[in-house]
Design a protein that fits this description.
The chain folds into 2 domains: 29-124, Immunoglobulins (Immunoglobulin-like); 132-190, no CATH class. It is 17% helix and 46% strand. The protein has 2 helices and 14 strands. Strand 7 (95-104) and strand 8 form a beta hairpin. The longest helix is centred in the N-terminal third of the chain and has 25 residues, at 2-26.
């Protein structure tokens, strides 16, 4: 009878150890610290992604999510040391529904996602470039003759549906070419004789 109890206790002890080991591995202690929601990050700048290493093992995968879906892999496999310097690439679009996801390479069940969303915005220089119109032709050096018809061309930018075109002389307004024309990047103009 004593022997039977000893065997049962040994079996119970082994079962309990296995159960505790599985539980500790399944319990996720990996945690995103920064960016964890509410930040405004700028394309082209570098930021340190920070996390609590927890039980994720030696290596982790870092990803950018947009509206809860995979958007960009930041690093396929980096050391689980709690920090990663990330320069936001130009291909990341401005938006407000971004989150960071950190995933254990050893056990994909161990992962964490930013608690709330953060914003990615374009730099002021890039915003100005995107917002501005750009004259393509004539852009200097052309010789146009009065009475002949030419095509004025421009980069539309995000100037809206219509634009005004005027002729400058010595940097000052000289004559209206069109007070309202479709912003389609081109306008045919016959140069008046006066």
């Amino acid at each position: 009878m004593k022997r039977r109890w000893t065997v049962l206790l040994s079996a119970f002890s082994i079962l309990a150890l296995t159960s505790i080991d599985s539980y500790s591995w399944a319990t996720n202690t990996l945690k995103v610290i920064d960016p964890n929601g509410g930040q405004q990050l700028t394309v082209g700048k570098s930021y340190t992604v920070k996390w609590r290493k927890g039980n994720a093992g030696a290596r982790v995968k870092l990803s950018l999510l947009k509206a809860g879906k995979p958007y960009l892999v930041i690093d396929k496999q980096t050391a689980n040391d709690g920090r990663f310097l990330w320069k936001i690439p130009n291909k990341v679009k401005a938006g407000s529904k971004y989150r960071i996801k950190i995933l254990s390479i050893a056990n994909p069940k161990v992962m964490d996602i930013s608690d709330r969303t953060f914003v990615v915005k374009k730099s002021k220089a890039k915003q100005l470039a995107a917002n501005s119109l750009k004259v393509i032709s004539p852009n200097g050096g052309q010789k146009w003759t009065t009475g002949k018809r030419y095509r004025i061309k421009w980069g539309k930018g995000n100037a809206g549906a219509t634009v005004k075109i005027h002729l400058l002389k010595s940097g000052k307004h000289y004559k209206w070419i069109s007070k309202k024309t479709k912003n389609d990047g081109r306008h045919n103009w016959t140069i008046p004789s006066r």
